[in-house]
Amino acid sequence: MSFATNTLSQRMEHAYYPIRELFPLAEEIKKTGAEIYNASIGDPVPYLGAAKYITRAYCKALKDGKAFYSRSPGDFGFLDEIATRYKRVYNLDIESSKIFVTQGLSEAVSFLTESLIDKGRGAVLFNPYYPTYAPTIKLFGGTVVLSSLNEENGWAPSKDDLEEKIRKAKSDGVDLRFILIINPNNPTGSMCSRKDLEDVVEVAKNNDLLIISDEIYDQVILVKEKMTCVGEVAKGVPHVIMNGLSKNWAGTGFRVGWVAIPEDDEASGKLREGLGNLVTMRLSASTPAQIAGIEALRNVKAHNRFLKYMVKNIRERAEFMQKRLNGIEGVSCQKVKGAFYLFPRIDLSKTKFKNDKEFCTELLRREHAWVTRGSGFGLDGHLRSTALPPVEVLDKVAQGIENLMRG
Ligand code: PLP
């Protein structure tokens, strides 16, 4: 077989990210001069701006010539600030030597999966899930085991379903490694109760599985309930906490994430060793962005001011959109508690569309309203809309959905 007919590795068939699949169509429409009502990308910066105190620190780092490699696991000062934050926000003691800085949380996902997954192994995701996870597990030859979140129960995890899926996977010969939690959740906008988290930890412990918690939205909380960090309920159980500057600090473009592996057991130690080797292979995360990160985490007053403004806007927009969507026949949307997403169910049997992919494509083509298909997150018959654009734009998106539901 020639190189041209057999260029890519077989694993590349899994390299796919559905959130960005309608970009070419959107760009075509934009070229005609038409306006697009975009609620598809979870980037707060274009809608709410960047936090000036962080961008100033970034500019200063560059002016001071700090454009060199940092230590591979992360700048000492930044790691210390991350550890201090866990103490301040959750009263958790995490040594900074147990934290790694990554280029966005996305790189942490790759590194953790690469460290843990091989052919014959697998991981449990709650369905729906943020799309990076399933393809990454498959890229490394692993099996994805899905446990359904309970939509009617505000997208809560089900302990029974989780146990059942693990039992089944094991009896199928899958060597399971970890359970992934995304809390608060993309795409559902839900937040786990402490009890739900405790249940997941118990199941992980009983099955000798690692818990990995993606908490990138842990301060974008739109309700009065308290966010529980997995570290608060998983003491003595191997777990990983991930976060980064992208969402809480509205710093998507800095490409800064981090991974904390706080426990002292053997598996956690080995995982730290593996991650330590992987971060060395890619030399360094961005140094000026980490220096900006020091200011982002240290300047609590400025952060809280920005967060208050961001959360207030997102809450208003999410509440507007939820009400608007629930007013459309054939559409139902659960309450958004955290992050900045809505994940309405659409009754496709009331439409001419076979699936949500067709629905979303036509929504963009005909109504110029841009959302993401639920099946891209593992669950057909749903749409994911962000709550980031102003209400006038969200209203246009909802109007587009309403028009399409009517035929
Ligand atoms: N995890 C979740 C749940 C997300 O929603 C996103 C981005 O939308 C990411 C991770 C990616 O984060 P980062 O920008 O730090 O790579």
Secondary structure topology:
Elements: H1 23-31, E1 37-38, H2 45-48, H3 52-63, H4 76-90, E2 99-102, H5 104-116, E3 121-127, H6 133-139, E4 143-150, E5 156-157, H7 159-171, E6 175-182, H8 194-206, E7 210-214, H9 230-233, E8 239-244, E9 257-260, H10 266-281, H11 287-298, H12 300-326, E10 331-332, E11 341-342, E12 345-346, H13 356-367, E13 369-370, E14 372-373, E15 383-386, H14 391-406
Parallel strand pairs: 1-13, 3-4, 3-6, 6-7, 7-8
Antiparallel strand pairs: 2-9, 4-5, 8-9, 10-12, 11-15, 14-15
Helix pairs in contact: 3-11, 4-11, 5-10, 12-14, 13-14
Bound molecules: pyridoxal-5'-phosphate (PLP).
Textual characterization of the structure:
The chain is α/β, with parallel strands linked by helices. It has 2 domains: 144 residues, Aspartate Aminotransferase, domain 1; 249 residues, 3-Layer(aba) Sandwich (Aspartate Aminotransferase, domain 2). Helix content is 43%, strand content 15%. The chain has 14 helices and 15 strands. It has an 8-stranded mixed sheet with strand order 2-9-8-7-6-3-4-5, sandwiched between helices. A 3-stranded antiparallel sheet has the order 11-15-14. Strands 1-13 form a two-stranded parallel sheet. The longest helix is centred in the last third of the chain and has 27 residues. The radius of gyration is 21 Å and the shape is globular. Pyridoxal-5'-phosphate binds next to helix 5.
